[in-house]
């Protein structure tokens, strides 16, 4: 058996040597052949130079890829999957929050269950408060708007056959966990340790998290389009009730009806219409991006 490990890298030069040494020791102890695919997502520190040095010191074990711009974590993983040669593929972050020493738990779980995918999850994620809040938001959204599991993790092990199905997709934004859910329900979970990040600063700013959130909501489901239908039906029903109320007041109570009711009705309906147009426009923009073949990633340099 051979295992490929895909690691998206962004501004993590200070921990890359330690990360590699830890992974190398794990597989040496397990006597399992392995390959590491480092994908540098256009870091602005010297991460690429560190990856190049690791590659030069360990020929045959490393594939080093540098993207031409920052495409995001999931797109970087997607790129790395294309170069995997192992029977199984493990994906993990570069900050060692998921310690490489937990890799054997993924392997043992897959062996015992013969699952297509194993997620390494934790009972105690050591993240800043803002990241915990956004993580819960992602899980809530995923649970109610998509078919993927809400308990996913970037620390995962999958069969090569499943990875090949995933990389056949051509949309510009890829969300690995959603694509996985399209092909298999044979998914298992195993509890692993989760440490504090060895990096001083989070690579996910608030704007990047919001962008990722909107990409997930608009990119993989039509929930908001269904919401438009619901709003249309609801507003029509409310408008009908309001209209009946004004008619009854006019007939039975001889109340003079002024412009207030009309203005409120127009304002409400206009707001619903504008919101609906905006949502439809966002979906159309994404369709336009797909039709124009916006690249998922572009490689500026690769060392195999």
Essential attributes:
304 residues; alpha/beta; Spore Coat Polysaccharide Biosynthesis Protein SpsA, Chain A
Polypeptide structure, described:
- With 304 residues, the protein is α/β, with parallel strands linked by helices.
- The chain has two domains: 2-205 and 295-303, Spore Coat Polysaccharide Biosynthesis Protein SpsA, Chain A; 223-291.
- It is 51% helix and 15% strand.
- The chain has helices at 16-30, 47-57, 73-81, 103-113, 129-145, 160-166, 176-183, 206-219, 223-253, 260-291; strands at 2-9, 33-40, 62-67, 88-91, 117-121, 156-159, 187-191, 299-303.
- Helix 1 links the parallel strand 1 and strand 2.
- The two termini are 20 Å apart.
Short description:
Helix content is 51%, strand content 15%. It is of the alpha/beta class and 304 residues long. Strands 7-5-6-4-1-2-3-8 form an eight-stranded mixed sheet, sandwiched between helices.
